[in-house]
Every structure is written in structure tokens, then in C-alpha cells.
């Protein structure tokens, strides 16, 4: 299931405008060490239970606005 969810994430990111996609990958890599976001192993290593991982996987990121707030600055620096 973890791989299926990551595959869906790739599909959605592939329809995201390229520069925004690059930004998202860079932010994720900085936060989690992986451009697609936290892996199952990362979450387990950071104390999440399987139930917590399943629950959070069913919700969108509540901080999308915060995540994207740095995009304009990042884009200008490129």
C-alpha cells in the first residue's frame, strides 16, 4: 500500500507545473531526505505507529499554504 500511495503521488506530481514540482521535490528532500516525501521507514523511525501512518495517509497536507509560501522566493533564486 505504501508503494501504491507513492506511485499515486508521482502521478499527481507529474501533472504539476515543472518548476513547482522541482520546488516540492526540493522541500521534501530537505525535510525527509526523499523527494516524494516521508517514506514508511522514515515515519516508523520517527515514532509513528502503523495506525497513525494509515490515518495521516488518508488526509491532505493541512499546511499546503505554508509549504508553498516559499515558492516565490525559491523561484527568484533559481
Automatic annotation (TrEMBL):
> So which domain of life are we looking at?
Bacteria
Instruction: State what protein this is by name.
Output: Cell wall-binding protein
Q: What species is this protein from?
A: Lysinibacillus odysseyi 34hs-1 = NBRC 100172
Amino acid at each position: 500500500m505504501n508503494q501504491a500511495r507513492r506511485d499515486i503521488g508521482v502521478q499527481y506530481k507529474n501533472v504539476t507545473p515543472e518548476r513547482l514540482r522541482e520546488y516540492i521535490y526540493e522541500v521534501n528532500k530537505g525535510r525527509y531526505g526523499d523527494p516524494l516525501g516521508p517514506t514508511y521507514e522514515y515515519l516508523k523511525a520517527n515514532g509513528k505507529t502503523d495506525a497513525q501512518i494509515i490515518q495521516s495517509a488518508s488526509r491532505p497536507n493541512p499546511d499546503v499554504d505554508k509549504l508553498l509560501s516559499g515558492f516565490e522566493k525559491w523561484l527568484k533564486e533559481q
